[in-house]
UniProtKB/TrEMBL annotation:
Pathway: Purine metabolism; AMP biosynthesis via salvage pathway; AMP from ADP: step 1/1. This is Adenylate kinase. It catalyses: AMP + ATP = 2 ADP. Monomer. Catalyzes the reversible transfer of the terminal phosphate group between ATP and AMP. Plays an important role in cellular energy homeostasis and in adenine nucleotide metabolism. Its main location: cytoplasm.
Length: 216
């Protein structure tokens, strides 16, 4: 059985984190989000975390060399042996090249693109609330049981600095610029699944699951 590697693409706020987590649980594969790895480094105040904190807050991309360091280390862990899901990586053509150099020819790559209009991105991200434990909420669409508190660990929720409107706009422009070649690559390799991200979380999940199972 080849190792399955799922790449989740979509603008910030498209719901790729939510969907990749659910698919990860179903397929018993780890979900690796470079954004989360970086935020974890920030939380534990590692040297790398201190180096990248300002860039993340400003919605700027972290250097490919730093991302390489993080991903290489994460992919060396045993839980990736049967495959894994990537969320937020690769972010550009250089990172795609780097990822390919870490994979084997027999590995099967399946890309998922979740599409949503810009207006919806801004609406969703401005209502997003997050917790340090990785849980994500939306004040209207997915509110926590107790306002401002995480359902999973009870900690106080907060607004990510890069979810401010002017930074969201910049992240959107960057996403469009960088993701073009990646999606083209996935399309040409006949392994791109495009999903309408404006449907309900449940609907997207069921549609996605069906289409991924068809790929097996
Ligand atoms: P995300 O959680 O995927 O929205 O990422 C949050 C922030 O982390 C981004 O705005 C970037 O500053 C940084 N980041 C995450 N993944 C990458 C990546 N693959 N390459 C460069 N920077 C990244």
């Amino acid at each position: 059985m080849p190792k399955h590697i799922y790449l989740f693409f979509g603008p910030p706020g498209s719901g790729k984190g939510t969907q990749s987590d659910r698919i990860g649980k179903d397929f018993k594969l780890p979900v690796i989000s470079t954004g989360e790895l970086l935020r974890h480094e920030e939380t534990i105040k590692s040297a790398l975390g201190k180096r990248v904190a300002k860039l993340i807050d400003q919605g700027k991309l972290v250097s490919d060399a730093t991302i390489h360091e993080l991903i290489k280390q994460r992919l060396s862990l045993k839980d990736t042996a049967k495959g894994f899901i990537l969320d937020g990586y690769p972010r550009d053509a250089e990172q795609l090249k780097d990822l390919m150099s870490m994979l084997k020819k027999t590995d099967k790559i399946i890309a998922v693109e979740i599409k949503i209009p810009d207006k919806e991105v801004i609406n969703r991200l401005s209502g997003r609330r997050v917790c340090d434990c990785g849980a994500t909420y939306h004040i209207v669409y997915n509110p926590p049981k107790v306002a401002g508190r995480c359902d999973v660990c009870g900690k106080k929720l907060y607004i990510r600095h890069d979810d401010k409107p002017e930074i969201i706009k910049k992240r959107l422009v960057d996403y469009k610029l960088a993701s073009g070649p990646l999606l083209k690559y996935a399309h040409q390799a006949h392994n791109l699944i495009s999903i309408d991200g404006t449907a309900s979380v449940e609907h997207i999940y069921e549609d996605l699951l069906k289409r991924l199972e068809n790929q097996e």
